[in-house]
Amino acid sequence: MTLPAPEVSREVQSRLLSRYRRIRNETESLADPLSAEDMQLQSMPDASPTKWHLAHTTWFFETFILRQEIPNYRVFDPAYHEIFNSYYNSLGQPFSRPHRGMLSRPCREEIYEYRQFVDRAMSRLLGDIEIDGALHKLVTLGLNHEQQHQELLLTDIKHAFSINPGYPAYLDASEEEEESPSGPEPLDWIEIAGGTYSIGVEGEDFCFDNEGPAHRNLLRDFRIASRLVTNGEYREFIEDGGYQEPRLWLSDGWAWVRETQAQHPAYWRNREGRWYQFTLAGLQPEQDAEPVCHLNFYEADAFASWVGQRLPTEFEWEVAACQLRAPDQLAAANLLEKRNWRPQAARGQRQFLGDVWEWTSSAYLPYPGFRASADAVGEYNGKFMCNQKVLRGGSCVTPADHIRMSYRNFFYPHQSWQFSGLRLAGDNP
Amino acid sequence: MTLPAPEVSREVQSRLLSRYRRIRNETESLADPLSAEDMQLQSMPDASPTKWHLAHTTWFFETFILRQEIPNYRVFDPAYHEIFNSYYNSLGQPFSRPHRGMLSRPCREEIYEYRQFVDRAMSRLLGDIEIDGALHKLVTLGLNHEQQHQELLLTDIKHAFSINPGYPAYLDASEEEEESPSGPEPLDWIEIAGGTYSIGVEGEDFCFDNEGPAHRNLLRDFRIASRLVTNGEYREFIEDGGYQEPRLWLSDGWAWVRETQAQHPAYWRNREGRWYQFTLAGLQPEQDAEPVCHLNFYEADAFASWVGQRLPTEFEWEVAACQLRAPDQLAAANLLEKRNWRPQAARGQRQFLGDVWEWTSSAYLPYPGFRASADAVGEYNGKFMCNQKVLRGGSCVTPADHIRMSYRNFFYPHQSWQFSGLRLAGDNP
Amino acid sequence: MTLPAPEVSREVQSRLLSRYRRIRNETESLADPLSAEDMQLQSMPDASPTKWHLAHTTWFFETFILRQEIPNYRVFDPAYHEIFNSYYNSLGQPFSRPHRGMLSRPCREEIYEYRQFVDRAMSRLLGDIEIDGALHKLVTLGLNHEQQHQELLLTDIKHAFSINPGYPAYLDASEEEEESPSGPEPLDWIEIAGGTYSIGVEGEDFCFDNEGPAHRNLLRDFRIASRLVTNGEYREFIEDGGYQEPRLWLSDGWAWVRETQAQHPAYWRNREGRWYQFTLAGLQPEQDAEPVCHLNFYEADAFASWVGQRLPTEFEWEVAACQLRAPDQLAAANLLEKRNWRPQAARGQRQFLGDVWEWTSSAYLPYPGFRASADAVGEYNGKFMCNQKVLRGGSCVTPADHIRMSYRNFFYPHQSWQFSGLRLAGDNP
Amino acid sequence: MTLPAPEVSREVQSRLLSRYRRIRNETESLADPLSAEDMQLQSMPDASPTKWHLAHTTWFFETFILRQEIPNYRVFDPAYHEIFNSYYNSLGQPFSRPHRGMLSRPCREEIYEYRQFVDRAMSRLLGDIEIDGALHKLVTLGLNHEQQHQELLLTDIKHAFSINPGYPAYLDASEEEEESPSGPEPLDWIEIAGGTYSIGVEGEDFCFDNEGPAHRNLLRDFRIASRLVTNGEYREFIEDGGYQEPRLWLSDGWAWVRETQAQHPAYWRNREGRWYQFTLAGLQPEQDAEPVCHLNFYEADAFASWVGQRLPTEFEWEVAACQLRAPDQLAAANLLEKRNWRPQAARGQRQFLGDVWEWTSSAYLPYPGFRASADAVGEYNGKFMCNQKVLRGGSCVTPADHIRMSYRNFFYPHQSWQFSGLRLAGDNP
Asked: Pathway involvement (chains A, B, C, D) (predicted)?
């Protein structure tokens, strides 16, 4: 038996529409510095062109909401059904992922028209029609989905630009001037007592299905670092021969080192003995006090081994982050709205949100009792719960109203094109 | 501060020597049906030639025990140090794994001489010299290591023979005659109450480092099947189009189906509409009541989705297996000593050990507080704790004194050349 | 001793400048129908983005002429030296070929500025300064080089568009309307007497170094078809199971069929039993009377085997084409200037130039006495004289003043993205 | 109309039987030093196990002769039809070439029984029954086929042993003792006048189909070296940075260098600054005066470029070799019967047969008028006439009654596991 979905008040509905407009605008503003040619780039199968992100997020609203809700809805272009489907096999065979960069047509203008077309229909839907709670939830999912693609849009274009020997800047380098701070914040070890903790969320507020069911988890005493590992600390690992010492690496990690001949993180470059990092403002001198980023899991794990510590589990991370959360945590955190476009050195506050996604030692697995929903949207998270690792905390390009302490991001251990770093943890002695 | 290792009584030491002789003999008896040519085969990088197993297990005793314990020990052949090192990077670069089948020299006779040489030295060591507890533990590790290779020897030669269009039999097919039973045992659902359970072991008896530390784990109510999934049940999955329906598969699993064009388990063959299975006795008609085997994790998971259930976690498995264990479980189980060489239909007893390794939904990760030991033997387990899945329960080719309820085997999700199957689990309604 | 290079008359110099302007304009006019996004596409390592063609041809003039001839010449952008170098290793490591499509910057406008910058300098050089014969030759080489890239620009964008499920049209389909002719021209066998013939050219007029030295070649009696093989004839080959019969194929050709699972030429599509071909005007119904095109060498050779004939050698082709050449051959031929953009059915005239490049049985090898010149331009042809096959005759997208009877084009046997087809030949009975 | 095949005299038939026995015995004597394990080795897809060579040559006689000629012939084992078919697609899908090393069964003893079984049947056929000319020819083809596999047997086992870090010796190193000669024979340039020459053979004596039809070929004046290029000369090329200079290499050759990171020929090893070569007698010090061997075509071509010369065409080679042939050429040459197992320094005689196969600049193409025969044996040569290069002259492991001046061997340009070297040629100044 399915209960009738609760109605949504006019006020809530109106706030949803405002939020819809704000998030949709934000996506376009993130694409603003890019030319039609930039927006065409796909530098690896894991990444997508900007243009594709703009269209696919729109396709999500059209496919899962407009086509379901509006009688006799006429799609903008039937061909889009295939080419902007990401991975929903239940909707038909999606267009070949590695070839997304081959779609010069539809052109950028058509994609913007598509966005406007869908936005008008969505505005009518949210403005004129009474929606129920299920639809409210689905729109909210679509907006969170779009926010995920905002972050991907930035990390994907960063990767694409990193291939260009001219190291193009997404944003003007002059905005980026930054004093190298005197040194990193000292690292404190925070001790957390073991016990049974509640993990995950389940409630009225939006969260992804993979964040629940909320459940109890038994933890041992542990300690966790007060801040992220810095570039300077990671540089020591490099200079100590970290990439040459198999004993520091997981077996698959060492295979990765040997195959790729990696000697440093993906975006580091050495020019005449000085380290640089490729950033959204182009190639910039490495800053020792900043959190290290664009590590893959193998690198994060090897670094932790080198210092004789370990990564936290995702459960330890969540417990510590909730306990240590400052009242203004979200406002203070270095998230997308700060427009810093890169992680920043810790300054006093406890750095638990923003800057870089933190690799945990946890495999991405369903929480006890998890069930993917049976409809197409059910392909959203569950089918990826294999071979990936959980990251927590959001990054400098994650929107502030998108991140939560319970948020579970996930990537394969070899992937490093996200803003991903690490925080150390350890067992209490 | 390191305490002096405890002494080992003569009797214990004498039992160890007996065990050493028995296990070393068993390995050779398993190789007996094979010709020098068979023992040369390496059919994929994951597998090794029989000859290599015979030598590598011997190398383990020579490298970690004889070279350490016996003053001025002269190794049998210095070249063996490299070519029979499996993956101990701390001992130097091991010989290229995919090329183990290229080592026609040393020949089989030399390998047997090597075994005798090391066995004589080990017999002297265990027979004449007083050993301490640390050494006792190391010898026991070496023997358990050899038992692991006994199983691999069989699964590797099975894979190698499966490439040969003549489907050679490891053992005489006539020994294999078996009545097809009237039907599979009915499947019961056993309900287990949630709560805090102790997982893993830590004690006097030998276990691998990955089985500890013993720790407490919080489980919810769940239910688990009384027996393994059968060939007949899996055949229905095939016939229902299981390999054609993306919604049943994990994302990486569906990619595997598409890439390999798999339509059935690795060793199944269809001849004019009738299913056969390649076994250690050659190609044999499929038996509906037997547990399905040689599934990879993706297949096991997709099958569970198809029936609307799931795989157990390794913790659920361990708790259920310990609760439901029969007094004569180990004696009754279909393990190597039974010389059945294949899984058998459940008959009354609860099938929790032997027959096939059971894929669990758990990623292979360290237990809380786990630390790999710092010496070379420390590479044994820890460095593989990434990207693999845990299997439990042992198989029809696992030695009986090698398996335990706490035993954690691990393979990559795409691998299927072990005797691997599944048991269903579910959440209590 | 090097003789002073002969002077070039004002008139000749003036004609060279006109030609320079005409050819440079033609390249841009070919790019006109394309958007900045289209011009960014690189659909495989063998192909290059339109934008790259526009820049690389310009780079050729800047690198080999302006930088050598103009004292204190300031290059447009020093970074271009690497990124628009195709394969001249003697000028430094060229930018990674498969990543040319990753260069969103420099953008299209910058590339056009680059063209204007170089065109102005070239105009001054050719307009104001007395040039010698060597420079005249080098400019002419640059122009022929640009014409090669005009053809590549079209075949590369055709390939890129073929990946797009919407099959975009380079040109308006309505221009393309074409009546299906009543049937193909009947095929005549033309008999050519054996003897010693002169092959290749050497003289005042421009030709590529690989067309010489002119030399004598001994041919046997042979016969050659009066026209190209048609779509209709090739369709019969398909329908007769040509792609399923290993005996028709070269060993490497059959390996190609098995690996790619090819069942028809690259740009053929079957929609509900009807054949279509992807053309520069989008997906169009296959026309039986038109020459078959976009075959690779293996397909051309297998077709010839199927009809019991063979391909001509490049020497037979050249002798036949010269003997049978009509006075107005070049004017009548279906070349780029006709703006047909596709091969056309033979109509009366002997089809020896234009329509499709004709695969010959000859390997691409140096003519006797060939020596590549020692300077960087010497990398132009010689180093490719291995593993490729010669094609003759030009195609529907080859400029008329670029093609010659002695012209030797060359591609690898598996390549089919050029307008490539075949003409049958045979031994005289 | 087919003429009745001519009868064969008793004496000719008796000589054929003797030859059959001698060649079949020789194959087995070449396999004698090898163990069953050695005979199992397949170190790359291009190579085959010894055991497979022994069986496949036997399969050739059974398939093309016994099954055709003897009424109601019962094959030794029906399964062999597939597993010992090399590449005759017209006889059904051959067993996967890269998996030949997986066939531990049939075992060596069965293969020898197979040989005896077929030898007995062949002896009866050739001893008791009157055979005609066509059959005589086919048997002779089978014997030449077996001689080809004698050479391959040796080069394949050499490659397999080269993978083993112990560098096993096929033959006792003590037999191999050899004084390093005082220095290489001086190189003379021999001038050959241009003109029309007859190339290829056609006559009563056996030759492969690819050596005909005999035809006339027009050559220009050229010169050719009196001896092969030596190790010492090639060492200078290495030491001069030959493997670092792209201008010396063909485009595909340079791609090969970059991909494989080659720095020296395949079997060269540098140990503390001294060069060694892997030989059939194990790792031996490099001898400067010996012909360089195990070069691939790219290396041979690059070396020739480095000295400012070129490789001969296969036509130039044949003309020069015939003109300069000494009366006792074949008897003096370093061929298999000499049991030297390696090339030898030139000593007075003109080295045109034996030692190493000589890469020519010619592509492997059909001679004018060549037609493969229509039956299965017709797959013998013709279908390989693409992408390969011709080598001439035989090697130190080619049987003396197998090689001819007109003999055309062929390999892909990247292949180097044959005894392959080069002789320089040039245009007359």
From this structure: Amino-acid biosynthesis; ergothioneine biosynthesis
